[in-house]
Amino acid sequence: MSERYVPRIILVGPPGAGKGTVSPVL
Q1: Average pLDDT of the chain to the nearest whole number
Q2: Measuring CA to CA, which residue among 14, 25, 16 is closest to residue 5?
Q3: For 22, how many CA atoms within 13 A lie in the half-sphere containing its CB?
Q4: pTM confidence score
Q5: How far apart, in Å, are the Cα atoms of 10 and each of 1, 2, 20, 23?
Q6: Mean pLDDT of 1-26
Q7: How many Cα atoms are found within 13 Å in the side-chain-facing hemisphere of 4?
Q8: Contacts of 24 (CB under 8 A, 6+ apart)
Q9: What is the 3-state secondary structure (H, E, C) of the chain?
Q10: Dist. CA 8–CA 26, nearest whole Å
């Protein structure tokens, strides 16, 4: 669940603060 969510958050990160930071907020 975590290993599959990390690579997804980086690609679908918010346009502003999530282009290289892993944030499990989404």
Answers
A1: 56
A2: 25
A3: 7
A4: 0.14
A5: 15, 13, 6, 8
A6: 56
A7: 1
A8: 2, 5, 6, 9
A9: CHHHHHHHHHHCCCCCCCCCCCCCCC
A10: 10
**How does residue 2 score in pLDDT terms, banded at 50, 70 and 90?**
low
As a whole number, mean pLDDT of residues 7-11 equals 56
Structure tokens at 10: 């980086």
Measured distance CA(16)–CA(3) in Å, rounded: 23
**What local confidence, expressed as pLDDT, does residue 5 receive?**
56
pLDDT score for 22: 57
